[in-house]
Design brief:
Rossmann fold; 26 strands; alpha/beta; binds 5-amino-5-deoxy-1-O-phosphono-D-mannitol; 23% strand; single chain; Glutamine Phosphoribosylpyrophosphate, subunit 1, domain 1
Length: 610
């Protein structure tokens, strides 16, 4: 998830681009850059690593000026944050900014290298820049060259392109990553999101996938990928600037909850083959032989990431038939852990900077384990120190409460489980194909689950006054109960505990009275009947039952005060969908209580101290 801006008009583009990038910095902030067509018809670049302030410094030291330009703030996906990997990328007189992932970049790069082209970055983006340049050299005008190059790539993109040979144009295109066009009186703007253009215009066109926008100072033309004209109507934006930064959502957490269908797909993108029932993860170092040598898996993480690890244990054990232990990082590092030969150590960390997780990973390496990290932040310490990385590609998560990073971790871990199972021969390719088909349907099911947000907001109004909550789940949904309780307590400051439902009568049942909401996860899986018995135990003590289920039959309805429906899926995948109503419930309760949803007290997004 990166931020793109573009400008063409009568003014100096530099302050407009920098201001737009500042408003998009929430989308990524590991490096930034500008390309501006100067008065002599040359395109000049300025790029810098780190936050936007560094780029501003570079621009003030080496000023540039011009009335056409594009800019970018980066959230690295391919290649660590560095000046060479920062956008815009240049090939000859052509420059490009990109948000998304070019899935087939490796094969295209091989082809382009074979033609004698050279690369100056490790990004997937530079491939696209070469493809457009190749089409231009074949005599196509910039818009046609862009369309022809896009026909050669697979993956997601929002791009902005300009060329010294066609100085009056900026071309944008989108597929799977957001891109809007701003319509000024005598200027046109391109941006990943509305806030970047709000100071200049409130009239925007939202591009759809497969559309190309050709911007000039006098207006904008939109076409499809075949060049056919697409009539578009503009929308007048009446959000205030703060709302606009959150995409119209009241808080980043709510925005990130609703982004999950997209972020989940991004994690899966280009990493499986349905035909072969295989998972292929770039950067995952274990070949078939090495997978065969694994004798146990040790997963280590903190907080929400630890909950993802607890769920992954069920997947790896049942699919790959490997023993798995899951540890809290701060415990692992201090307990003289056993790491026998054949241990695959998996750390899970959104930030890649959590001190305890890093220390545990170092300890495991010291003891000879192969280490893999499941991480969201490219170039973070965990990714630099691990033997291999599986990036989650969820985009920056701003809300302190982890939501989309969690479900993307689950997507990555499920792929890992299938990969291990295929490598060990414990899963046939037919069985793997069926599971992968269910997995790639999850984003659609997520949309359905999120469409019920209104019901959950209404329920939150009835529950927000409670002092304690219990969350119960069994088997693979027990970690979801832990996650639901953590979400609620961290942002609403209500005491909440997650328990395996079967443990209820061993202690926590003493807490139940008519004041305590008990959220029970009840998918129709192998332990459904057992969960019904637990509902009965709660009901007999007057507890308020909130049942979350994938088919609200009579037995559930008769016992529960409220039922939250979740779309049905494969029993192994239920935790991914069952997490969503719990995130929404925590969000609405917190908001109703007037808490600081995105920055709850005493917490930090990244815990870099012990
Ligand atoms: O960046 P990490 O995944 O390593 O962070 C681990 C925890 O600090 C984090 O998941 C925390 O529990 C979240 N605030 C939960 O919403």
């Amino acid at each position: 998830m990166c931020g793109i801006v573009g400008y063409i008009g009568p003014g100096d583009s530099v302050p407009i681009l920098l201001d737009g990038l500042k408003r998009l910095e929430y989308r990524g902030y590991d490096s930034a850059g500008l390309a501006v067509l100067n008065g002599t018809g040359r395109i000049e670049l300025r790029r810098s690593t780190g936050k936007l302030a560094n780029l501003e410094k570079v621009v003030s030291q080496e000023p540039l000026q011009g009335s056409t330009g594009i800019g970018h703030t980066r959230w690295a996906t391919h290649g660590p944050p560095s000046e060479a990997n920062a956008h815009p990328h240049r090939v000859g007189g052509l420059v490009l900014v990109h948000n998304g992932i070019i899935e087939n970049h490796m094969e295209l790069k091989k082809e382009l290298l074979g033609e004698g082209r050279s690369f100056s970055s490790e990004t997937d983006t530079e491939v696209l820049c070469h493809l457009i340049d190749r089409q231009s050299k074949r005599g196509l005008a910039l818009p046609e060259a862009v369309r022809a190059a896009l026909a050669e790539v697979r993956g997601t993109y929002a791009i902005g392109v300009m060329s010294e040979s066609e100085p009056g144009l900026v071309v944008g295109a989108r597929n799977g990553s957001p891109l809007i066009v701003g319509l000024g009186a005598d200027a046109s703007f391109l941006a990943s999101d509305v806030p970047a253009v709000l100071p200049y215009t409130r009239d925007v066109i939202f591009l759809d996938d497969g559309e190309v926008a050709i911007l000039s100072a006098s207006g904008v033309e939109v076409t499809g990928l075949e060049g056919e004209r697409r009539p578009k109507t503009s929308t007048r934006i009446d959000w205030n600037p703060v709302m606009a930064e959150r995409g119209g959502y009241k808080h980043f957490m709510l925005k990130e909850i609703h982004e999950q269908p997209r972020s989940f797909s991004d994690t899966l993108l280009g990493r499986y083959s349905l035909e072969r029932g295989e998972v292929e993860i770039e950067g995952f170092m274990l070949d078939e032989g090495a997978v065969g040598d694994i004798e146990q898996v040790v997963i280590v993480a903190c907080g929400t990431s630890w909950h993802a690890g607890l769920i992954a244990r069920y997947w790896i054990e049942s699919l790959a038939r490997l023993p798995v232990t899951v540890d809290i990082a701060s415990e692992f590092r201090y307990r003289d852990p056993l790491v026998p030969p054949g241990t695959l150590f998996v750390s899970i960390t959104q930030s890649g900077e959590t001190a305890d997780t890093l220390a545990a990973q170092r300890e495991a390496r010291r003891r000879g384990a192969k280490t893999v990290t499941i991480c969201n932040v490219v170039g973070s310490t965990a990714t630099r120190e691990a033997d291999a990385v599986i990036y989650t590609h969820a985009g920056p998560e701003i809300g302190v409460a982890s939501t989309k990073a969690f479900t993307s971790q689950l997507a990555a871990l499920f792929l890992l489980a299938v990969r291990l199972a295929r490598g060990r021969g414990t899963l046939t390719n037919d069985a793997a194909r069926c599971l992968l088909e269910d997995l790639i349907r999850i984003p659609l099911r997520m949309e359905e689950a999120l469409a019920r947000a209104g019901e959950i907001a209404a329920l939150a109004r009835r529950l927000a006054g409670a002092r304690d909550f219990l969350y119960l789940g069994r088997g693979i949904n027990f970690p979801v109960a832990l996650e639901g309780a953590l979400k609620l307590k961290e942002i609403s400051y209500i005491h909440a505990e997650g328990y395996p439902a079967g443990e209820l009568k061993h202690g926590p049942i003493a807490l139940i009275d008519e004041q305590v909401p008990v959220v029970v996860l009840a998918p129709h899986d192998a332990v459904y009947e057992k969960v019904l018995s637990n509902l009965e135990e709660v009901r007999a003590r007057g507890g308020r039952i909130i049942a979350v289920t994938d088919r609200a039959d009579e037995s559930v309805r008769a016992r529960a005060e409220a039922v939250l429906d979740v779309p049905a899926t494969h029993p192994l995948l239920t935790p991914i969908l069952f997490a969503l109503p719990l995130q929404l419930l925590a969000y609405y309760v917190s908001d109703l209580k007037g808490c600081d949803v995105d920055q709850p007290r005493n917490l930090a997004k990244s815990v870099t101290v012990e």
